[in-house]
Specification:
- The structure is a single chain.
- The protein folds into two domains: 6-121 and 200-374, TIM Barrel (Alpha-Beta Barrel); 127-192, no CATH class.
- The strands form three sheets. Strands 1, 2, 3, 4, 7, 8, 9, 10 and 13 form a nine-stranded mixed β-sheet that branches.
- It has eleven helices and 13 strands.
- It is α/β, with parallel strands linked by helices and 385 residues long.
- The longest helix has 19 residues, at 237-255.
Length: 385
C-alpha cells in the first residue's frame, strides 16, 4: 500500500491545487481548464508511500517531507488488510500531515481481490458445471421389442345348479431383446464453463471508496483501474473503464465536491486503450489530474545509466512518453510517475540521484506539471529538484 506526495514550489502554494479543484462543484469543465492553466506555473513533487511504511513514520519523517516542500501524500488504504486498513492508516497519517499543511489522498487498488488476483471490470465471472449429453457410437447393442403372449385362464361358473368350467383367453405383451449392430448412444457427463455477470464487486468497491472519502482525506487516487493487458479480448472494455471512473467521480464529488480525484495509468500511448482499456482523453474528463507510470526500468531501460541493451536512453523514452500523454489528456495536469529503482525485478538497485534528476527534468521539459517518485524509502534523492 502506498502514499503519494506532491510538492509545490514557486509562487503557487499547495492550496492552489486544492482551491482549483474546489471549482469542480460549480463547473467541471471550467475548473479543469483553470487547474491546467495554473499548474503550468507549478512544479508538483511527490512520492508514493506504502501504507505500512506510513504507519511507522514519526514526526521527524514528516518534518523531512515538509522541509522538502511536500504538499500532498497519497496513502495506500487497504480494503482487505486488517493491519493496514484505511481507518488505521488515515488516523495515523492525517494528524501528522495536516499539522504540516500536507494534504492526504487515499490511494485505492481497484480491480484486484483479497488474494491479489485480477477481477474483471465488467463483472464477468465463470463457473464449472456438469452437463449431461448423448454420446453416439456404432456397435452391437440391444434392441427392445414386444411379443404378444396368449394366456388361458380356467374359470368356474354355475349353470343350472351345477358348477362348470371353461377357459378364458387373455393376451399380454412381453418385452424382449435382441442384438443389433448400428448407431446407438449412452448418457455421459462433461464439464463446461458457464459465464455470467455479477456487479457485486464493483458495487462494493464504489461503496468502499465513498466510505474512505468521508474520513477527511483531501483526495482519492485510483490504481489498477484497468485490465491486465487483456482489454482487447472484451467488447466495450475501454468504455467499461471510463464508466467506472465516471461513477467514482460522481460518488466522491457527491460526498465532498472539493475532493481531488486522480488515477495511475499505464504509459503506452496509443496502445493503452487496446491493452488496458485506459483512454487518456476519455478518463481525463472525470479526473483532476492523471498519473502515467513511466517506469523506464520495466520497459527495458534497466541497465547502467538507465539504458537498454542496445544503449538507448531511458531518459529520452520518458520525455517521449510524457509529451505524448500530455497531448492526449484534454489539458488536465499530467504528473509523471518515475521509478527510483532499476526495475520491478531489481528493487535493490536504486537509481543514482543524478540519473533520477535527469529523468525528472526530461519529464518536466516535455510538458509534465510535476512528477511522483515510486517510492518513499527507495529514493537516493534527499532533496527533490
Amino acid at each position: 500500500m502506498l502514499c503519494f506526495v506532491v510538492i509545490s514550489v514557486g509562487t503557487v502554494s499547495a492550496d492552489n491545487v486544492t482551491n482549483v479543484t474546489q471549482n469542480n462543484s460549480l463547473n467541471q469543465t471550467q475548473s479543469l481548464n483553470q487547474l491546467a492553466t495554473e499548474t503550468k506555473n507549478t512544479t508538483v513533487r511527490g512520492y508514493w508511500i506504502r501504507g505500512d511504511t506510513a504507519l511507522g513514520m514519526n514526526s521527524s519523517n514528516w518534518d523531512e517531507l515538509q522541509k522538502g516542500g511536500v504538499t500532498d501524500v497519497f496513502v495506500s488504504c487497504s480494503r482487505y488488510s486488517a493491519s493496514s486498513s484505511y481507518d488505521k492508516v488515515l488516523a495515523a497519517v492525517i494528524p501528522y500531515a495536516h499539522a504540516r499543511g500536507i494534504n492526504v489522498h487515499a490511494w485505492i487498488t481497484c480491480f484486484k481481490d483479497a488474494s491479489g488476483n485480477w477481477v474483471d471490470p465488467q463483472g464477468l465471472k465463470s463457473s464449472k458445471v456438469s452437463v449431461k449429453y448423448k454420446y453416439w457410437y456404432k456397435g452391437w447393442h440391444k434392441v427392445a421389442y414386444k411379443v404378444k403372449v396368449k394366456h388361458y385362464t380356467k374359470v368356474k361358473y354355475k349353470y343350472r345348479g351345477k358348477w362348470r368350467t371353461k377357459y378364458k383367453v387373455t393376451y399380454s405383451y412381453v418385452t424382449k431383446y435382441k442384438w443389433k449392430k448400428g448407431w446407438t448412444y449412452k448418457w455421459l457427463y462433461q464439464t463446461k464453463t458457464v459465464y455470467n455477470y455479477d456487479s457485486s464487486f464493483n458495487n462494493g468497491l464504489v461503496n468502499y471508496i465513498a466510505t474512505v472519502a468521508k474520513t477527511g482525506v483531501d483526495g482519492i487516487h485510483l490504481d489498477y483501474v484497468r485490465y491486465p493487458g487483456t482489454a482487447y479480448k472484451y467488447s466495450g472494455a475501454t468504455s467499461t473503464i471510463t464508466s467506472f471512473v465516471a461513477r467514482v467521480h460522481n460518488t466522491v464529488k457527491a460526498v465532498n465536491s472539493n475532493i481531488i480525484l486522480s488515477a495511475a495509468v499505464m504509459p503506452e500511448g496509443s496502445s493503452n486503450s487496446y491493452y488496458y482499456g485506459q483512454d487518456y482523453s476519455q478518463m481525463s474528463r472525470y479526473l483532476d489530474f492523471i498519473v502515467p507510470m513511466i517506469y523506464k526500468g520495466n520497459y527495458g531501460y534497466s541497465h547502467a545509466n538507465g539504458t537498454s541493451t542496445t544503449g538507448a536512453s531511458g531518459t529520452a523514452w520518458i520525455a517521449s512518453k510524457t509529451a505524448w500523454i500530455v497531448q492526449h489528456s484534454n489539458g488536465i495536469p499530467v504528473l509523471a510517475g518515475l521509478q527510483t529503482y532499476r526495475s520491478d525485478t531489481n528493487w535493490s538497485s536504486l537509481v543514482p540521484a543524478d540519473e533520477l534528476t535527469r529523468d525528472i527534468k526530461a519529464a518536466m521539459t516535455s510538458g509534465a506539471s510535476g512528477y511522483m517518485l515510486f517510492r518513499y524509502g527507495l529514493s537516493l534523492l534527499k532533496v527533490l529538484p
